[in-house]
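Appendix B. Raw example, untouched.
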Amino acid sequence: MDWGIGGLPCFLHLGEALKSRSCAVSCFYFSDAGYRPYGLLSAEEMRCRVVEVVDYFTPDVLVIACNAASVRFAIDGLSLLRQGKTLVFGMAKAAGRGLRMLLNADSAESPSILLLGGRATVESGYFQNLLGERVQARVAQPLSALVERGLLDGPEVEVTLHKLLAPSHGENYPTERLLALCCTHYPALSPLIRQLYPELRLFDPMLGLVEEVVRWLDVQGGLVGASRGRALVSSSKNGQLFTTGSRGNLCMSAKVAFGYVVPSDQVHDCLPLRSTI
């Protein structure tokens, strides 16, 4: 799950990994674009929304492909929902582990980190507490809305990036600086960021999260759901997308941002969850 289309690359990579392993696991995607942006929700609002979504879909495994949503579970140490019936994997923990590995690889030469995230992600302090003074976090809330609108370049996007990435007056960036894209929408802007700021190295935690989920499934033998007489989620949902927002906007934005052509018959309105917004 994610707010909007940001988690689609995670969904696609995870689906391909499961298919290559012939796992008896079905996987579907929930876009909550009709809800308020997750980066603007309070901790309690975010926790309640995740619980509401889980109670509706009742999955065995929930992959929160959103830093703003998953950071609450990382801070609180929660990994189970529905009285222990739903195992939770989150983007924030995967991002934290990946960044900490980069910092620990060579403490003398490891890069300083400029981290971009939604307001809830940055103001949670999760990454700052985990990584210490080597990380500088900035709220980049407008970027996700631009990506949802299919804007990946042009004056509006460049001005927004410049405000976030250009050194402030009197500030000098270290020669080795890592840009952590801690919102799943931001990687869609990677080509433009590389063009405008070639000195920055980009970090996207998405593949780390996929690998974590796949490793867990491998340990379970890939058939954990089937061993209980059913797949991890209803097979009728496999490969399907559900949204509280506009189906047309989801298809348009997915194609523009990630080059993913979503068949219209695979996208479904999620009316019960929309009615609770």
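End of appendix B.
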